[in-house]
Design a protein that fits this description.
- The chain is an alpha/beta fold.
- It contains 8 helices and 9 strands.
Length: 238
């Protein structure tokens, strides 16, 4: 891998997104990299804020409303475009979601860790809360702090690197368009293709769970309403 492509998909939740972007552009990255925010039909006001921030911070901004009429979420389209570009430029693809704040060394360390492991399909940074405790979606990793190890459970794309070797083996156009999120499918496909997915609990990133999709907080506050929305409205298909 010659370089890094970092992407953040977002719809609204701009204050948190700008925190995510600030941390990424302040990262210590030794290889060439590009950072792109994919704006998935945010409001006109928030789109304007992203456009202004892109000029100040230097990230690329792609407004999906210029490319598709499909309503948000357009996560699949983002993944497909990002995969194509990463393969073309021999780049590692790092997804950092808009409710995550990385440390200065996170992205370069993920890149180095993936490069050192020839069987690596996905390299994922563990998520923690404001106190530094491992939190959702990696609660199963508690007890494995300060380690790097192959994880057979799925990797979330909160902050994950997909190697170009893996990207070349599986075309994201094969993913189910009826689903909203594809972390689980892609994680399992990586293992099917003979790769290992490594979890780096040595590289904690601050995660504010579901901050970019506040309705999902209902899962903890009002689970009956959450599951009604999930199944009756067809939201959050994984």
């Amino acid at each position: 891998m010659k370089c890094i492509h970092v992407i953040t998909p977002v719809k609204d939740s701009i204050d948190l997104t700008l925190q995510t972007a600030e941390a990424i552009v302040a990262s210590d990255i030794k290889v060439p990299y590009a950072y792109t925010i994919y704006n998935d039909f945010s409001t006109a006001e928030n789109t304007a804020r992203l456009q202004e921030a892109s000029k100040k911070m230097g990230f690329n901004l792609v407004n999906l409303s210029d490319l598709t009429d499909h309503p948000s979420p357009n996560y699949l389209l983002v993944l497909q475009m990002a995969q194509e570009r990463a393969i073309a430029e021999d780049a590692a693809l790092i997804i950092v979601e808009s409710d995550v704040v990385v440390k200065k060394n996170t992205l370069q360390a993920l890149f180095d860790g993936a490069q050192e492991r020839t069987d690596c399909g996905i390299a994922a940074a563990v998520t923690v809360d404001e106190k530094g405790e491992i939190n959702y979606p990696y609660l199963f990793a508690k007890g494995n702090e300060n380690q790097v190890y192959p994880e057979k459970k799925h990797c979330s794309f909160c902050c994950s690197l997909l190697t170009v070797n893996f990207l070349r083996t599986f075309d994201f156009h094969q993913l189910d368009p009826e689903k909203n999120w594809h972390d689980v499918t892609i994680s399992h496909q990586s293992q099917k293709e003979g790769f290992r997915n490594y979890l780096f609990t040595t590289l904690p990133v601050w995660h504010r769970p579901h901050s970019s999709r506040p309705w999902k907080q209902l899962k903890y506050k009002n689970p009956l309403k959450y599951y009604w929305l999930k199944y009756a409205k067809g939201l959050d298909k994984i």
